[in-house]
Amino acid sequence: MRVLIAGAGVAGLSAARGLALAGHDVEVYEAAPELRTEGGSISIWPATAGILREFKVDLDGAGRRLEAMVSLSPRGRRLGAIDLTAVERAFDGLPALHIARRELVERLADGVPVRYGHEITEVDPDRAELVFADGRTVRGDLLVGADGRRSVVRRALGGREARLNGWATWQAFTDLPSDIAGGGRTVLVSDGRSLGSIAPAGHGRALWWFDLRAKPGSRFWDSPGILDRLRERFGRWPDPFPAVLEHAETAGFYPHHLHRVPSTWGRGPTTLLGDAVHTMPPAMAMGAAQAVEDAWALSRTPGDPRAYERARARTVRRVARMVATEMPSRQGPITGLVPDARSTKSYVKWLRSATDYF
Question: Which of 38, 83, 166, 349 would you label with 335, given CA atoms 20 to 30 Å apart?
Fold first, then answer.
């Protein structure tokens, strides 16, 4: 089967690896002139780690293996923790990793022939056909739209655009020495209205981020002076937040978007995966995981894209509903009411519900 994939991000590269390993002739087309490595970090949960292993992605030395997620109050009191080593044991030794997006896409792209600089101007979903800006046309037996939230393929299918949900993330990497950057624990602080977190990303770096309500035109929207506003809002939270904010020179802005997940989303020989069909907020670190799951599921039944869509829709809709609550930002001190062992058990249950791999 000749498979055309639009987009060389996490979703597209994962699909390319899975479908090529299944014996198909895969062609990946990317509008950017080179591999897109921008962005923050990605959480790889056990199911994702298992799929990437099947796809022969070398994760040796990648990112940082996570051992715990520790919740603190805004004054620094320990509220509770999720033991990710116990989670690892529950999933047959598959780890939870935190990795820079750059590092993940570089490893996914290794050995995958991508045709860069191919901007798609027209799509014929019924013929699995792409037309590029230079006028060239290609046609396949299966067309996969993995071209992100602004997907050209989704528009050709008449799919809905993602909407803002009223929240946003500010984030950046830091290489300040700390027990977090060199360790295996993620620290989370919530006051019931916002979330601050910092997690090791490997190679002596950590990613810090803040999730909070932000609508266009508000003081925490993308505007000059935002670092001063973040310092004012979060500068008295427990270490290491004051230090990373004091030394920060810039921060990436990511407004949260959300798709309504339909029961099926393709037509004829054309389908979608990843953010092209189910963009979701980063609140529970599930976006990349679901994209990789899409790639794995599609690689198993590429000749029946509707069956792939129906099977994935059930799980993705469940995950999207949970993520849309922005629960980590809203939980506040209630975290301290749940024993660590119960929190860990609940997290295992959540991860099982969020995957079709196990």
Answer: 166
- Find residue 132's DSSP bridge partners: 120
Does residue 171 lie within any of the structural domains? no
Q: The dihedral of CA 268, 54, 11, 290: what is its sign?
A: positive
Exposure class string for 258-267: b at 16+ Cβ within 10 A, else e: bbebeeebbe
What's the pLDDT tens digit per position in 304-332?
999 999 999 999 999 999 999 999 999 98
Q: What digits encode the pLDDT tens for the residues 133-189?
A: 999 999 999 999 999 999 999 999 999 999 999 999 999 999 987 789 889 999 999
Write the single-letter amino acid at 79. Answer: L
CA distances from 182 to 65, 68, 85, 199, 202 (A): 11, 13, 17, 10, 8
pTM of this prediction exceeds 0.70: yes
Q: State mean pLDDT over 73-96.
A: 97
Asked if residue 211 belongs to a domain, the reply is no
Q: Tokens at residue 269, please?
A: 């020989």
List, in sequence order, every residue forming a beta bridge with 9; answer none if it has no partner: none
Question: At 307, which CATH number?
Answer: 3.50.50.60
User: 199 lies in a domain?
Assistant: no
Q: What is the pLDDT of residue 195?
A: 97
pLDDT of residue 223: 81
Please check whether residue 233 lies inside any domain of the structure.
Answer: no
| Residues of the domain holding 21 | 2-162+258-353
Structure tokens, 170: 């500010």
Shortest CA distance to 154 belongs to which of 279, 289, 37?
Answer: 279
As a whole number of angstroms, the distance between CA 65 and CA 182 comes to: 11
Cα–Cα distance for residue pair 49/209, rounded to 1 Å? 23
Structural domain count of the chain: 1
